Amino acid sequence: MAIQLYDSLERKLKPLAPSHADGVIRFYNCGPTVYAPAHIGNFRTFVINDVLRRLLELEFGAGKVKHVRNLTDVDDRTISQAQREKHPLGEITKKWTAKFHADCDALNCLRPHVEPTATGHIPEQVSMIECLMEKGNAYRAADGSVYFKIDSFPGYGALSRIKERELKVTNTVADADHKDSVSDFALWKAYKPEEDGDVKWPGTAGASEGRPGWHIECSAMIKKHLGETIDLHTGGVDLLFPHHENEIAQSQCCNGTTFARHWYHSEHLLVEGTTMSKSKGNYYTLSDLVEKGYSPMAVRYALLMGHPRKQLNFMLDSLHAAESALANLRAYRASLAPVTTAHDAFAPVFAALEDDLNTPGALGALFTIINRKEGPADAAAFDRVMFALGLDLNQAAPPKAETPKEITALAEKRWAAKQAKDFAAADALRKELSAAGWSMLDRKDGYSLEPLKK
Length: 454
Ligand code: AMP
Ligand code: ZN
Prior knowledge:
It is built from 16 helices and 15 strands. It is an alpha/beta fold and about 450 residues long. It has three domains: about 10-265, HUPs (Rossmann fold, 3-Layer(aba) Sandwich), CATH 3.40.50.620; about 275-390, no CATH class; about 405-450. Strands 4-3-9-10 form a four-stranded parallel sheet, covered by helices on one side. The chain has a four-stranded antiparallel sheet with strand order 5-6-7-8. The longest helix has 21 residues, at about 40-60. The chain is globular, with a radius of gyration of 25 Å. Bound molecules: adenosine monophosphate and zinc ion (ZN). Adenosine monophosphate binds near residues 41, 42, 238, 268 and 269.
């Protein structure tokens, strides 16, 4: 079996295979911007990419996958956060990088082989910008910034199929007045003391001192660590435009060759129907959920319960389901004898994963096999499935928080009052519940109880 994955550029399922003679799959995943904790929406993307990495290793061999994921440690958001906190940029990004790593470890995500930073690759970005200026794809604006000239690249828009008209609306930014065309994007941003503080580097040929634009970092780091043509490039759907469109334009114009042979974009995690995002403030971090008593492994499991190419609505209830699924997997593992059989009982699990990374299909197939309780049980084959999904069953489950009987009774009374539209009584009962340290979350068809944070 070969892994088939949807390609966002060609808009069809395509098999994944290495293109270089050494047989190594060159895999790049756009990483986090390190100015705040990553939320579990971000981690949906990173966990999906981790399953992809694991599957590639199983299919092609552990030494045959080179996985690079960057850290964006200089951009508008990181700089303004450093200014708000009145600390040097490097201090802020170091702090949030450490938190990101701790969360990745707790979620059992394999570390990428290379994790380059934007600030660690300024010369590489400058030399790419110079290359684009020499080739006539970039120009210096009046303020000393450098822009990519979209009209110079006929292939622009192939990935996102964005039409000229939409492009002009979407890409309009505050510094548009210095550009030839509103849709051109910044490769280098001239230093603005009031915005940038002490964040600046010497300029490129013809440009003032300043800092790189966001998109150029990935093009430059990919070229350095993976080469001019890579096999797989991934990220969340929001990166499709403009970020990935711009990466293609920069890399293909500079290198004169195909940039990425396969583009894969995973869908967002939603909360109550809208995208979970830092700017909306509607997010949970991993720490928020651990504080509520859930295990990081249950968070990982819950993030795999939806198809990666479909939006997934996040609900605390799915963490309860995930904890009990993990408990079942632990019990099943304990019942297995350490035998290896020729027949792989778990082949349907891999068939689902290889079919466009269908993680809910894989979990469904897994439980069908487990519930059938057919022998011979094969511990090695089961462990291989756990490796692919990245489920570490040794990670401790949280102690079960039993709901006291009197709390359940109050909740039942309140639910009945609400059904009877006696809202005054329902409100009074809610107050009683919260005084006792419990919150009641209502849904259309029922409710759940959560202990309040101490
Ligand atoms: P950022 O740190 O904002 O650069 O985002 C890091 C990664 O998280 C990117 O691949 C985004 O596409 C992805 N991402 C952002 N919000 C969500 C979300 N709500 N659900 C899934 N992935 C997301
Ligand atoms: Zn990128």
